[in-house]
Each structure stands twice: as C-alpha cells, then as structure tokens.
C-alpha cells in the first residue's frame, strides 16, 4: 500500500531515484552517519515532521533519519523549490509520506504544512521556521509531544531568536545554520554557486563584463559576489552594516547605496533576509533590460507588488522563470523565478557535496535533541563545537585531505601564559 502523499505524479519516481543516488555519491559524511544510525537506531520511535526544500539532497537526509528509526514525513518549505521526481521517489521507493508539488499555490502550501503537522511530531525540522511558526500560532495542542526542533536557514534562525526573545518560543530549537560547517560552506559556497547557476539556467546571459549588484554582504552575499566576480562580472555591493560594507570594500568591490547602484546595474541579486530591498524608486532608476533575482528565503526582498503596479503592459513570461515587466517609457525589467529563491526555483539548490555537511548537522542535531531535549530550555541552541569539528574532519577525510596535528610542545605552548617576547 502506498503511504499518504500529495505529490505531482508517482510515475516520476524512477528518475527521482536515480538522481537521489547520484547525490548520495557526493554525501559521504551523511552516509557515514546513516551507517551508524542503521546500527544504533538513535531515533527509534520518534516522529519527525520535516519542512524542507524537496531535493535529491533532502531525500538523502530523510533516508538517514528513517535509517535511524524515525517515522518521517516531509512537506515543502517553498512553493517553487520542490523537485517533483524526488517527491515521487520518496513516496514510492522509501515509503515516506510527502506533501509537496512544484508551483503549488499558497493555500496548498499551508495545507501541506498542516498535513505534515498532523503527524504529531516529536521533532520538527524546518527551513524557514514555518512548522514552528504554525505550531505556535494555530496548533498549540501539538506542543505536549514535541521534544524540540532544528532549523536550517539564517532567516528561520532570526525568526526563532525573535520568538525566544519575546518569551514566545515553547520548545528548544537547534540552529543547524549556526554551525561553522553549515554557514561557512553552505551559505558561502552553496549559495554562491547555486545562485549563479539559477540565474544562468533561467536567462543564459553572459555574466562577464556585466555589472552585478549584490544586496547584502552576509555569508550568502559574500559567496554570490565572489562567484560573480569569478565569472568576470563587475560586482557592486549594497549594505546597511558598516563592518560588512567595509569588508566588501576591502574585498575589492564597489559599495554604494541601492539608489545609486540601481542606475548602473545589469543584474540585481538580493540576499539580505529583509523587506523591499529593491523598491519602487529603485525600479524607476534602473536601466532598460535590468534583471532582478532574489536569493533570500522569502519572496519579500524585491517589491513585486510595486513592480506590478508600475507595469503599463500585461507581464509576459518570456522564458521559464523570466517574467518581463514593461514600465513607463517602454523600459523592460525582468523578474526571475517570481522573486523566490532563484537557486532552487530555476536550478537545483546547493550541490550535494555542500548539503552533505548541512544535512550532517541536521541529522546530528535531531539525534542531539532526542538525547538532550528534556534538559534544554525553550531557546535557540548551536550544535556543540565538537560535533561541528567532527563533521569537518569527516568531510576532509572523504576528500582525501590530511592536516597537521599539534605537537606536545605546541600544545603546551598554547596552554601557558608565562612565555613572552
Ligand atoms: N537549500 C539550498 N540548497 C538545497 C538543496 N540542494 N537541498 C535542500 N535544501 C537546500
């Protein structure tokens, strides 16, 4: 009997399975955790509701949790990020209930979250805090069973910290995102490559010689700027934080307010986590043919309603994920992927080798939560440093990279304070 699901088409399952296996080859750390989970069953009897981007990499995480004994369900964490073949394969080949369809409307998106919560989780696993948010707003009866949660993304962690600060958070959550092996690699190298990948797949534009404006110089913005520069683009950074702006200047980029950048940019990429970073007055200053894309978690960074209002013609989809808006004076502005995270809307998200570490953090965070949840307060926690380091060690080992060890003499030197000049 097929497990419960709401996916596009189960006939897509065989192709999804091949792609899941392809990703698995690039995920040695997660595989090592899965082998151990298989033997030790640390998640036995635990119900896990996951709200993540439904990708080949997520499928490998779900399989790992299942191997650890968890009873898992999965729903989408964004209406446009689901890979329908993967959703089908998880249902047909792994017997994991999945509720996710690429392009689902907002109503369906929340119906899917509801279905995942009907599973009555002990552990929530979020990418953007939608499960935690929904539980606290409208499903408080679930709180009794919940041991804790884990969170994948910066935006989700910001929301959770705001809840904890207000005393509203009712159970502990581990911010997988805050591990070094996550944000230093996933946010920088993952978002850097996959954002460029999404823009190139959507538009097939040459980046060399173009002016690319990157809004936000956090770990994601740094990665995007670095990769855009590597492709030959002239990179402009916009920031609100003086330290980050200074860092961008020292990294060799031009830094200026968006107002000014709007006049010179060819391609705009938002990665700030904030609202209306590209707003009506910026659209007014843009050049004909400007391309705007978002890489942040929510589709709020580009003021799309303003762009729609400014439009003097009915917007046209000129190629998949490229919508043309013509504003006063006949100027065309191209919005990519409905302003949703372009790396998952038009491409496949971060490569598996990156998600290997992000999802190793998630799997270990779930295990840690089950072991320690009862003794944790309703706060946001970071994974213990030794686990973070162990993930880095395993990844290096899998990559065949060896590093030095401290000698006894060096260890002693670092631990004393008497010796000076
Ligand atoms: N977030 C970014 N890239 C991802 C991927 N490939 N799978 C799941 N979540 C992601």
Shape: globular
Rg from C-alpha positions?
A: 22 Å
State the helix count. 17
Low-confidence stretches are none
Roughly how many Å apart are the termini?
Answer: 74 Å
Give the % helix: 40-55%
Give the ligands present.
Answer: adenine
Widest β-sheet, arrangement of strands: 1-4-3-2-5-6-7-16
Do you know the CATH architecture of the largest domain?
Answer: 3-Layer(aba) Sandwich
Question: Into which percentage range does the β-strand content fall?
Answer: 15-25%
Query: What do we call the CATH homologous superfamily of the largest domain?
Result: Adenosylhomocysteinase-like
Helices and strands, with pairings:
Layout: E1 5-6, H1 13-24, H2 28-40, E2 47-52, H3 56-67, E3 71-76, H4 84-94, E4 98-99, H5 106-117, E5 123-126, H6 130-138, E6 148-151, H7 154-165, E7 173-175, H8 180-203, E8 211-215, H9 219-230, E9 234-238, H10 242-250, E10 254-255, H11 258-264, E11 267-270, H12 280-285, E12 290-294, H13 304-310, E13 316-319, E14 322-327, E15 331-336, H14 342-345, H15 352-372, E16 380-381, H16 385-399, H17 408-415
Parallel strand pairs: 1-4, 2-3, 2-5, 3-4, 5-6, 6-7, 7-16, 8-9, 8-11, 9-10, 11-12, 12-15
Antiparallel strand pairs: 13-14, 14-15
